[in-house]
Amino acid sequence: MLEQMKARAESAGRAAATDAAGRLAERVREAVPGVSVAVEGSAVTLSGRGLLRRWLADPALRWLGGLLR
């Protein structure tokens, strides 16, 4: 019984992480033009020309978790 609960909790956690990654990617696309966003499972990858320089100047890129609020 405990194993079933553990499996359901892990499944729910994976689904929530995947959903949050999708929402984050959507909001990054809206808030930060010119940045390419790729989602693979629960991982979000940003890429683009001058991204490091933009990361230093743009607070939205430094604190991506704020876009999920």
Give the secondary structure arrangement, pairings included.
Blueprint: H1 2-31, E1 36-40, E2 43-47, H2 51-57, H3 59-62
Antiparallel strand pairs: 1-2
Give the distance, in angstroms, between the N- and C-terminal Cα atoms: 35 Å
Strands, total number: 2
Largest sheet: 2 strands, antiparallel
β-sheet strand percentage? 5-15%
General shape: elongated
SSE succession: HEEHH
User: Structural class of the secondary elements?
Assistant: alpha+beta
Percent range of helical residues: 55-70%
- Unreliable stretches covering 5 or more consecutive residues: none
Mean pLDDT, nearest integer?
Answer: 91
Specify the oligomeric state.
Answer: single chain
Which terms summarize this structure?
two-stranded antiparallel sheet; 69 residues; 3 helices; alpha+beta
Notes on the structure:
With 69 residues, the protein is an alpha+beta fold. Helices cover 59% and strands 14% of the residues. It contains 3 helices and 2 strands; from the N terminus they run H-E-E-H-H. A hairpin with a 2-residue loop joins strand 1 and strand 2. The protein starts with a helix and ends in a 7-residue tail after the last helix. The mean pLDDT is 91.
Question: Short description, anyone?
Answer:
With 69 residues, this protein is α+β, with helices and mostly antiparallel strands.
